[in-house]
Write a structure and sequence with these properties.
Largest sheet: 3 strands, antiparallel
Shape: elongated
Strand order of the largest sheet: 1-3-2
Oligomer: single chain
């Protein structure tokens, strides 16, 4: 979601709610934050409710992220470095926040004219988080990074293609 102000309170678990869950289920809040925090809505940290709930119920920190077919289709754009996309992904894997223009996105999964279009779709799919005020995107947390952009594996493959 690129402009989340109207829906902020309905988007996910807040930090206060996650702290309460961690206490109830005797799980480390610090590890929960590392794994599942990173989404920002109206300046508030938001946690993926499905992942937090799964971790609490299973007692295990792991990736409960479900990849989509759309992401698989986008990999070719990353590999070919369309409009510098691969370079931007590498910078995000390294922890950087990348400026993106979400205004050019056509709201479909077929029309990509810029790297920003693909990055905007990844924001909508939840693979990236986006700050409306700074107009930047980044990989939100350990769960998504591990499930989608496992840094060493992806970085090695990307560098081999250069």
């Amino acid at each position: 979601m690129t402009n989340q102000y109207a829906l902020a309170k309905f988007t996910g678990f807040t930090e206060r709610e996650v702290r309460q869950l961690c206490e109830r289920y005797h799980m480390s809040f610090e590890q929960t934050k590392d794994w599942y925090d990173g989404y920002t809505v109206n300046g508030i940290s938001i946690y993926n409710p499905r992942s937090v709930t799964s971790a609490m119920m299973n007692g295990i920190f792991d990736s409960y992220w479900t990849q989509t077919e759309t992401y698989e289709a986008l990999k070719m754009y990353i590999v070919r470095n369309e409009n510098g996309l691969r370079d931007k992904i590498i910078r995000m894997i390294a922890g950087e926040h990348i400026s993106i223009n979400t205004k050019t996105f056509q709201n479909d999964t077929c029309t990509f004219e810029t790297a920003d279009d693909i990055l905007t779709l990844l924001v909508h799919l939840g693979y990236l988080t986006y700050d409306f005020d700074t107009k930047t995107a980044w990989i939100p947390n350990k769960e998504v990074r591990q499930a989608t952009f496992p840094s060493e594996k992806v970085l090695d493959k990307v560098l081999q293609l250069c």
